[in-house]
């Protein structure tokens, strides 16, 4: 299979994006692609996940190579002919490209299976906030498909095309979500003296929350707190009975998360109390930090060198989050950034995966197999 066919497939997936646990079309395409290669296929792992198993030789060694399949709940505002045809759903993070790169590697390995051991091709649903990696793991992923280590790749617009970076230890942050609802009585906007103002309190709380990182954490402990949404009110002349703000927290240390959550609850209570209101805080730690094991991070960089890719150790981790962290809690492994510039930033409404990256990803996936399962080249 040549690159033009893989590009066409990637663009087809981009036209037909699917949200978490609804990747039925994508999963069917992946499964049929693998079956056509003669690879053993297992469907419905973690709801809509797919695993392909390619075994050669007699070794009991085994690795997992993972790609994510889901899209984001946002409109595609790009101008390319293959833009999303599904309103409110868009491949704005490049999972369509990740899927095709792993399929391309599977095709090459099936055609030239010069390795000794087992490669498990893991196509994961629901990476975008719905913990598909956790669902697959809890569905017996590593019991049914044993792996000595697992590896994953993500396109990275901040790096030049084809440049590889990773690091031992933290590579991506833990992802937390919070929502604070401010409760009051509501009333007429022209009589504010009679009604505690939920929107004023909520606005003050937004400012107060942004003091937590700068004033309650050690400056050497990286963390981000961002309010991303405020909802409240129905009319220009009414103070609403409730208002809600929500956002995200990113950090690497559980003690830092503890401090942020504690201070958030304290501020929500004190700020709203000062206005004669109350608050309800919901705080969810949905993804742990993504922690690479040192040996597998070294394997990832050696594979990049073997594949002829420009590579180096990342100077610092990113404060974005990734549910591959659940797989790394179960198995040693490494998560790697593969430069995809020039492209829009990830999660941008005009983002489109850079198809020129496909050969680089295939080369790296193959080189990981060569490094770990002793392919003769």
Q: In summary, what is this structure?
A:
The protein is α/β, with parallel strands linked by helices.
Radius of gyration over alpha carbons? 23 Å
Give the biggest sheet: 8 strands, mixed
CATH-scheme architecture of the largest domain = 3-Layer(aba) Sandwich
Number of strands: 16
CATH superfamily of the largest domain: Zn peptidases
Total discrete domains: 2
SSE arrangement, N to C: HHEEEHEHHEEEEEHHEEEHEEHEHEH
Q: What is the global morphology?
A: elongated
| Portion in beta strands | 25-35%
Low-pLDDT runs of 5+ residues are: none
Alpha-carbon distance between the two ends:
20 Å
Q: What's the helix count?
A: 11
Mean pLDDT: 97
Spatial strand sequence of the major β-sheet: 1-2-4-3-5-16-6-15
Structural overview:
- This protein has 377 residues and is of the alpha/beta class.
- The protein folds into 2 domains: 3-172 and 289-373, Zn peptidases (Aminopeptidase), CATH 3.40.630.10; 174-287, Alpha-Beta Plaits (2-Layer Sandwich), CATH 3.30.70.360.
- The chain contains 11 helices and 16 strands.
- An 8-stranded mixed sheet has the order 1-2-4-3-5-16-6-15, with helices on both faces. The protein has a 4-stranded antiparallel sheet with strand order 10-12-8-13. It has a two-stranded antiparallel ribbon with strand order 7-14.
- A hairpin with a 3-residue loop joins strand 1 and strand 2.
- The mean pLDDT is 97.
